Fold this sequence. Notes:
Layout: E1 7-11, H1 15-41, H2 44-72, H3 78-102, H4 112-133, E2 136-140
Helix pairs in contact: 1-2, 1-4, 2-3, 3-4
Amino acid sequence: MNAATEHTYRRGINPLHGVLLAGTFVLFLGATLSDYAYMASYQIQWATFSSWLIAFALVCNGLAFLCGLFGLFVAHDRRRGLIYLALLVISFLLGFVNALTHAKDAWAMMPNGFILSLVVTVLALVATWIGFTNTGVRKSQ
């Protein structure tokens, strides 16, 4: 009598890639919240915080893109990986436009800065969701 067992292995995201991807979303979210705080209080420190958060989010986004690009070579579902990379590119480009918008005078960046921050945060959330669920499943006997 032979007993056959079937094991399912889930290959998770690389830890560095996960930290960079989560950092991208959190930093863009922080920029959106600081834009909202500036819109509510008109204290220029919030606009400055938002500018710095966007700059760090762009660095994390670019590095997460590189990790995702390397991960695309070993991905089982390349279509999903390409959608993920496209979302990262779009969020990077809109984030860069947002950084240029925040480089203006604090009064001049509203409301465009807040709207761009909100859009980029939603794109980063979707990219993070796809990135963390983009795990390969392998069955062995």
